[in-house]
Structure prediction request, 337 residues.
Amino acid sequence: MTVTINYKGQIATEAGTESEDLHLNEPLPLIEILQALSEKAADAVDDFIFDDERMPRRSLLVVVNDEQVIDFQNTIIKEDCVISLLPPIAGG
Amino acid sequence: MMLTQSEKLTYSWQLDVPGFGESEQLILRNSTAFVTRVGGLGGSVALSLAAAGIGKLILAHAGNLREDDLNRQILMSRDHIGQSRVKCAAQTLKRFNSDIEVVAIDENVNDMNITKLAHDADIIFGCAPLFEERFILNEIAIRDKKKLIDCAMYSMEGQVMPILPGITPCLKCIYPEEPAHWKRRFPVLGAVSALVAQVGVIEGIKLLCDFDNASLGKLVRIDASSMDVRKIKLISKREDCMACG
Prediction:
């Protein structure tokens, strides 16, 4: 299956891209996808996703197919989808 | 109370919008909106609310106009540099629509002044560049059961979140922690600020006038690069939310 990752806001700036595709051979919990993204990303991107204790940052909006998800352990990605990572923005 | 003949003429084109009639226009006329601040986003919000016929605007924004504000702060012009931003904004708005009342407060929102500033507001538009201010607006909206439209942008992106206390998730439900990476300086194309502002005003008018379907429980995301507008379904209110739980 193909999972498209959309980077938004400051994460896109740090990642240097707005989108990438991941190819998965089996269903995976969302947390493992986030961990896999972090491992291959630059430190600055990793820092947007995980805090110093390696917990997902609670103010990062993680959106799967236009629906916010907060339970990363029990959300299983098992088919093609779009995962968007939206860091908080407050520009006025 | 009825619309005057002058008001019927001024607003005649929007009174033709299906579902938006004289009763909705009267609601607008009798409403007070608190807008903080009056920069790229808030200035456009205030201008469109004035055009639509809001009865009273309360504007809060500290400081004097700088040259590097001018790419986005459309209520001010070069000859205002060095003058109070919010007073310039109020003058522009009064020239634009002399029927509305405009109150200009040369302060930013803080814990000490928020109760007074928001007291008369029926709706609050959060357009501040700092989360600290936005969270204060969120708390007062919950405490005093006021409608809140949180508008935000970054570079070519923006988002609008209508908040109806007790019904929708609040700002702390989606941002339970202080955002670690947000910086006061951010990239701004003024047109993107204005675009996001218009979405905010539309959502605000829907909420105020119970007109059309407000995007309750949704985050409206605008991507000006791809010209994509999406509505993200947010979680329900967090039971452990520090603000509304």
Remarks:
- The interface with chain A takes residues 37, 39-42, 127-131, 134, 151-155, 157-159, 174-182, 186, 188, 193, 219, 221, 225, 230-235 of chain B (CB under 8 Å).
- The two ends of chain B are 39 Å apart (CA to CA).
- Helices of chain B lie at 5-10, 22-29, 40-52, 85-96, 114-118, 131-144, 171-174, 190-209.
- Strands of chain B lie at 32-36, 56-60, 101-105, 123-126, 147-154, 157-163, 218-223, 228-233.
